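Record 1 of the preview.
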Amino acid sequence: MTKPKVYLVGAGPGDPELLTLKARRLIDEADVILYDQLVGEEIIASLPDHAELVSVGKYAGHHTVPQERINEMLVEYALRGRRVVRLKGGDPYLFGRGGEEAEELTAHGIEVEEVSGITSAIAVPASAGIPLTHRRYASVVSFVTGHEEPHKGDGVHWDTLARLEGTLVVLMGVSRLAENVGALLKGGKSPETPCAIIERGTRKDMRIIESTLGGIAEKAKAEKVKPPAILVIGDVVRLREHIAPEAGT
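->
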């Protein structure tokens, strides 16, 4: 009997053309696909009719299926001998809880293969004309989840991040934008630091909202920004006007 196996597949930031060739092949060969909504409507519409499709939701702050139940379903399908793809937005191992799923599967004797996806942390700013590094502006990039409570003792240390040079990229931070920005300002980050929020990056209806760190929360609220969206903080945001002045506007 073939050892049960699950493929943890990254779907990228939402543009179907940014799926890797391997991701596309495994999706098309799957018997069962458990997918997140962050995968994007166009990719979801392209999932094969022959496969059993299981939506497990998962926008930031809105999980229709608890993570524990997702883990259980992956184990159950794999042990039935099904060819299982767990399809996740971006890359499974970057704030995607793919590591937790891999641990659970491995604990049940199930083989795991992670298929890396193009992470939205890089692709989304790029699609808006914002390179995360640039010789004149940034040689360091920090990626952080914006979903955790800013004052949680063992969570994100915003005061430390406020003192770092370079570019800061905040994922899943829409619901706590004001709190996160406030923590950075309290930590000493200049309120004049350039910022951009990219909503639904790489997709046809992408939106870009620019401001300063001191004004971004209020502007995002006025523009009714919704997930999925990424916040980029740093001088590299200034490059957008030269590289892609009309992208997403």
